Amino acid sequence: MTKAISDLNVSHKKLLGQQKGVLCPCNPSMIQTCNAEKALLNKRLSSCNLQLKSVLPQRDSLHQQVNVLRSQMASVTKQRDTLQSQMNVFAKYQNDGWQYFRGSLYYMSTTTANWQTSRDYCVSKGADLVIINDAAENNFARGFKQGIWLGLYKEGSRWKWVDGSYLSSSVSYWIPKEPNNTGGREDRVEIQYFNYFNCWNDSPQTNKNYWICEKKVV
Ligand code: BGC
Ligand code: CA
User: Fold this and answer.
1) Among 9, 17, 92, 116, which lies 20 to 30 A Cα-Cα from 177?
2) Which of 47-51, 65-69, 202-206 has the lowest mean pLDDT?
3) CATH for 99-216?
4) Residue 14 — very low, low, confident or very high, per pLDDT cuts 50/70/90?
5) Nearest CA to ligand 1 atom 8
6) CB-based contacts of 112: which residues, under 8 Å, 6+ apart?
7) Could you tell me the residue ranges of all domains in the chain?
8) Atom of ligand 1 nearest to the CA of 179
9) What ranges in the chain are assigned the alpha helix state H?
10) Is the Cβ atom of 182 under 6 angstroms away from ligand 1?
11) Is 138 in the pocket of ligand 1 (CB under 6 A)?
12) In this model, does residue 112 exceed pLDDT 70?
């Protein structure tokens, strides 16, 4: 028992000694350990700083890429919306019997009317009387095999399309000897002899014809 008590005292003293060693900041071995640990941490810190330095340019370049992608997405979204609304227009007109040819929608009338009434119909549909821009379009128009009004009229002594442009001699398909201004009152243009490549005639605006409307869609 006495031995046990003295053993306990010894180990108590020992523990107190150890405790003193741990708590005392001046303990040299403790300082050494701390310094070693500090050096290690500093090393890790500078390695982290290095890594950070090498990653920063990557981050900046990623930011740039994100910005580029954002603006690309905005432009693609805009294109998609434009296409969607074009498709909606398309569907609506096709439902009403309009047909597509090379960037325009065309409507062939089912009744006849004078030039102005024909034009008014087209304008009321967001279109205008057809403008012939080349031989292919002329062939397309005469393919309906009807006498039809074109969007071409006389202004003074010149022929003018309904979009305000003047008729070009290289894109005109008059019947030989036309325009002849019969009776001095032929101020509008029709497709008359649709079986022929040169099929245009000048005609009085009060005559009745079928007509073709054109609406540009692209
Ligand atoms: C038409 C004229 C045309 C002539 C040709 C007439 O019936 O009204 O516009 O020039 O035929 O012979
Ligand atoms: Ca004529």
Assistant:
1) 116
2) 47-51
3) 3.10.100.10
4) confident
5) 203
6) 208, 209, 210
7) 2-92, 99-216
8) 10
9) 2-23, 28-95, 115-124, 135-142
10) yes
11) no
12) yes
**What letters, b where the CB count within 10 A reaches 16 and e where it falls short, cover 174-193?**
bbeebbeeeeeebbbbbbbe
Lookup: tokens for 115: 């030039």
Label residue 58 by pLDDT band (50, 70, 90): very high
What distance in Å separates the CA atoms of residue 3 and residue 170, rounded to the nearest whole number? 130
Site to probe by mutation for ligand 1, drawn from 115, 149, 180 as the one with most ligand atoms within 8 Å of Cβ, is 180
CA of 8 to the centre of ligand 2 (A): 135
203 touches ligand 1 (CB under 6 Å)? yes
Residue 13 has pLDDT above 90, yes or no: no
Secondary structure (H, E, C), 152-171 = EEEECCEEEECCCCECCHHH
Distance from the alpha carbon of residue 179 to the mean position of ligand 2, in angstroms = 5
Give the pLDDT confidence of 67-102 residue by residue, as tens digits: 999 999 999 999 999 999 989 999 999 999 999 999
Q: Which value, in Å, is the radius of gyration of the alpha carbons in the chain?
A: 45
202 in helix, strand or coil? strand
Question: Is the pTM value of this prediction over 0.85?
Answer: no
Span 113-131, pLDDT tens digits: 999 999 999 999 999 999 9
